[in-house]
């Protein structure tokens, strides 16, 4: 089946698409049993709010994410499996909304949040933010104020580093947002420190300015890391009160020590943008039942850019 046959709607980047997303899910719930069943499972999933002072995260038991959380994302493993974002490997029942020149919104049949969507490019091309910031900002605005646009870097959360994709989902109040008001502000930027996560938030009504500032921030982060590669980062974008709001999480590592620990100590948690936003996915019941806020802080601290380099980077942001 071609992309064109899967399309139920096509939108330009300046359109609002929240109504089209509702329509896509209504249709797919009717026609696609796997999605219907997994949405029902998510609705009944156990959650716990882990609180530490003014900060909190939501721990979620989600066995359906085991494959993704434990996915091998090294080059050899990725090269040896069929790409699940290429059109010819998608489930027959899956339908899409076209967005812009080459992006397709597809319901994620293993959701973490309601209306969880994968947004691959038409071509099988590597995950990279370079040249994609205008798409990211357009998507952030198009999905309406209650959804978040998501970008996971190829080495820190993307389960398909070989095929470009964004995600989105219905997350009206990501737990990280309460940290903004306690942050340090400088011009359009705010630095936040919450449960071991050091991050910055950009807020501006102007898409061109947002793109320029994000591009420079990425470049400065690469300079501080002394690397020409894309620095490890997760982005979350939304549009509220007539302004773009982008959460930028600079990363040091993909997975924390506990992911690799032996037996008793092991916690299967693999932080991507969802986790950084405050939704911590745990495929195993045992991990879900025992994880606490102190462990979450340790996990976030290990995978986030360290304090010294964060302060250096913050000093360079304009
Ligand atoms: Zn592909």
Question: Would you kindly provide a brief summary of this structure?
Answer:
Helix content is 32%, strand content 25%. The protein has 12 helices and 14 strands.
Describe the structure.
This protein is an alpha+beta fold. The chain has a single domain, classed as 2-Layer Sandwich (HIT family, subunit A), CATH 3.30.428. The protein is 32% helix and 25% strand. It has an 11-stranded mixed sheet with strand order 1-4-5-6-8-7-12-13-11-10-9. A 3-stranded mixed sheet has the order 2-3-14. β10 (189-194) and β11 (197-204) form a beta hairpin. α6 (133-142) packs across α7 (207-224). The longest helix has 18 residues, at 207-224. It is globular. The N and C termini lie far apart (47 Å). Zinc ion (ZN) binds next to loops.
Which terms summarize this structure?
single chain, 318 residues, HIT family, subunit A, eleven-stranded mixed sheet, three-stranded mixed sheet, 12 helices, binds zinc ion
